């Protein structure tokens, strides 16, 4: 990786990024490039190569060759583990440079980028363990003449298509898991945030990963993403992004019946009971709303507050929101960064107008803030007078906008929480353990929290119910997702002949 001399502000010149295929960085002349302007500063920071369907073919062929050769797919787990551990060490060594580019392209505060890079390294360390412990089953119950084994094998070539909101951590929650069992991969990062994915490919090469095991084809979804989803020599696909694109990927993947993992959108409830520690809950709800400026799949975007505590809680929450430090992305004290694009900011603002058209109102925030020249910053917003049937309560806004609703009794809280096309995440706030466990069992969501939100480690699987997705990433499940299961039946001793 190239060294960055000055890591405290935007670069003087945009950086040109090539494709990474079969261990080589491709910068060939006929490539076209897409400029990426920084959400926090407005200026161009990277130029991203627009890969083609032919580049996808080339990358898939490289991934297939190395898979068939077996230099990674049949490497002993302990050796694979050593490479993953080395990669983690290199991530930590380059953490500041990775965080710098993540902040520039994605618009996050630098403190958050640093935490994501550090957590990303943890996934490679965790997967080093899984590369050695992945195992099958034996069946010693068939009598003397038959013995059974179940083994797991890598699938082959996996396509990995990622979104822009957490470029490095979403990559880290998937890539080392896909690699742990011996697969080869072709990755398409979001065209808005390609830098850290390309950097990770170089890090893995430096750590000893054979060429061709990880390839990166940057470019647009309809060209590169679609070609990967349709490709007949790709066995499995991991897609993270919006529910609408997930549907297109699912359709395209039927070309050869790929195994498909879809991690999609959410409209996640924060259910707060009057017997919660309301100050803790207000802090947690504010964090769940403002983290990554609300551009987070598990963002708590629906507050369902017990009616008797509504007034006190909304006042505590508004006080908290006033104190969120929305600031320059390179100020390490900033807690909330910029909105990813002008188009996306317009979409978020259109929901503030829609809330009023639907009969609600903006009770707090929502206005643009001038923090840096060219930066796109929004104050978090509270929407009041909302009922769950309104579009603002049903659709994923993907910004710092909270729809506030009330409930009376656990049944009504569950009914509102589950009345959604999504089922990604949910948080329950109460000091009553019976209520907390009773509620968490009834809410429909793949990632849930009691008295906290958006917390966790690499061990627990991630994924959603309903239109929030199919399959699970992370944990042991995340490795097993990318394996084929083979049953082996072994005849023991002299065969008892069928034809005598
Ligand atoms: P998006 O669906 O617009 O794009 C995701 C990726 O798909 C990008 O790389 C894009 O280029 C690509 N793509 C676009 N069209 C394609 C096509 N026709 N075929 C194949 N690929 C195509 O999503 P986004 O705006 O980048 O990300 C935000 C969305 O991601 C939100 O809905 C959010 O909830 C979701 N998300 C989900 C999770 C999760 O774990 N469930 C995590 C992060 C983000």
Task: Label this structure with key terms.
25 strands; binds nicotinamide-adenine-dinucleotide; 2 domains; 500 residues; Aldehyde Dehydrogenase, Chain A, domain 1; disordered N terminus; alpha/beta; Aldehyde Dehydrogenase, Chain A, domain 2
Mean pLDDT: 96
Bound ligands, each once: nicotinamide-adenine-dinucleotide
The CATH architecture of the largest domain comes to 3-Layer(aba) Sandwich
Count all strands and give the number: 25
- Largest beta-sheet characterization: 7 strands, mixed
Quaternary form: single chain
- Return residue spans where pLDDT drops below 50 for at least 5 consecutive residues: 1-6
What overall geometry do the principal axes of the alpha carbons give? globular
> How many helical stretches?
16
CATH topology term of the largest domain: Aldehyde Dehydrogenase, Chain A, domain 1
The main sheet orders its strands as 15-18-19-14-13-21-22
CATH class of the largest domain: Alpha Beta
What is the end-to-end distance? 70 Å
Q: What's the name of the CATH homologous superfamily of the largest domain?
A: Aldehyde Dehydrogenase, Chain A, domain 1
Domain count: 2
Content-based structural category = alpha/beta
Rg, Cα atoms, Å: 24 Å
The share of residues in extended strands comes to 15-25%
């Amino acid at each position: 990786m190239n060294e960055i001399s000055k890591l405290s502000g935007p670069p003087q010149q945009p950086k040109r990024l090539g494709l990474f295929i079969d261990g080589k960085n491709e910068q060939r002349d006929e490539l076209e490039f897409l400029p990426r302007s920084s959400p926090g500063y407005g200026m161009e920071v990277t130029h991203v190569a627009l890969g083609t369907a032919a580049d996808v073919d080339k990358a898939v062929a490289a991934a297939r060759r190395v898979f068939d050769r077996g230099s990674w797919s049949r490497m002993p787990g302990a050796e694979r583990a050593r490479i993953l551990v080395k990669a983690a060490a290199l991530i930590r060594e380059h953490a500041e440079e990775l965080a710098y580019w993540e902040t520039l392209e994605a618009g996050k505060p630098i403190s958050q980028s640093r935490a994501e890079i550090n957590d990303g390294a943890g996934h490679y360390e965790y997967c080093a363990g899984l590369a050695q412990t992945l195992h099958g089953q034996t069946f010693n119950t068939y009598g003397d003449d038959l013995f059974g084994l179940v083994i797991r094998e890598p699938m082959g070539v996996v396509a990995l298509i990622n979104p822009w909101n957490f470029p490095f951590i979403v990559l880290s929650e998937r890539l080392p898991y896909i690699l742990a069992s011996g697969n080869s991969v072709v990755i398409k990062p979001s065209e808005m945030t390609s830098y850290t994915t390309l950097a990770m490919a170089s890090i893995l090469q430096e750590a000893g990963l054979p060429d061709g095991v990880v390839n990166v084809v940057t470019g647009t979804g309809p060209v590169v993403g679609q070609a990967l989803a349709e490709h007949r020599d790709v066995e499995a696909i991991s897609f993270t992004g919006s529910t609408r694109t997930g549907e297109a990927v699912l359709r395209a993947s039927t070309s050869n019946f790929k195994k498909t993992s879809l991690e999609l959108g959410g409209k996640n409830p924060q259910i707060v009971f009057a017997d919660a520690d309301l100050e803790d809950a207000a802090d947690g709800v504010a964090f769940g709303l403002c983290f990554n400026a609300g551009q987070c799949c598990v963002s708590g975007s629906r507050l369902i507050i017990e009616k008797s505590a509504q007034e006190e809680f909304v006042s505590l929450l508004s006080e908290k929101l006033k104190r969120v430090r929305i600031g320059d992305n390179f100020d390490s004290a900033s807690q909330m960064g910029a909105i990813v694009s002008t188009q996306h900011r317009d979409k978020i603002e259109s929901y503030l107008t829609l809330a009023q058209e639907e009969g609600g109102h903006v009770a707090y925030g929502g206005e643009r803030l001038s923090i840096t020249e060219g930066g796109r910053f929004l104050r978090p917003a509270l929407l009041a007078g909302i009922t769950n049937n309104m579009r603002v309560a049903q659709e994923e806004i993907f910004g710092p906008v909270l729809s506030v609703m009330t409930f009376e009794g656990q049944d009504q809280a569950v009914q509102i929480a589950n009345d959604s096309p999504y089922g990604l995440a949910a948080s329950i706030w109460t000091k009553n353990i019976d209520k907390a466990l009773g509620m968490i069992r009834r809410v429909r969501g793949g990632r849930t929290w009691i008295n906290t939100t958006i917390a966790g480690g690499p061990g627990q699987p991630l994924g959603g119910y309903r239109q929030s997705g199919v399959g699970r990433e992370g944990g042991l499940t995340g490795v097993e997702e990318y394996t084929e299961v083979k049953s082996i039946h072994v005849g023991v001793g002299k065969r008892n002949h069928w034809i005598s």
